[in-house]
Specification:
Helix content: 55-70%
Order of helices and strands: HHHHH
Shape: globular
Largest sheet: none
Structural class: mainly alpha
Length: 85
Amino acid sequence: MKPLHSRILERIYADFSGADVDTVIQKLVTTRALPMIAKDWPHLQMAILEIARGDTARLDDALQLAEIDWRDLLLEAGMAETAEW
């Protein structure tokens, strides 16, 4: 289980209600949808959070999209053209 980058945690706490924070963290940490390329994880996790915008149903949709094709995830989040996150 990889720890989350501090910027990812900040975004989770900013976007989600207190009751949802632990669930969101657990889903991001345990998902098998993301490629096993450690350096890209935060970028992909931020894309998931960008799509979710504080909504757990949208989070699940983003995780499902990542499972199908993580490149589509980046496109949907508007993050495909940049390494900035």
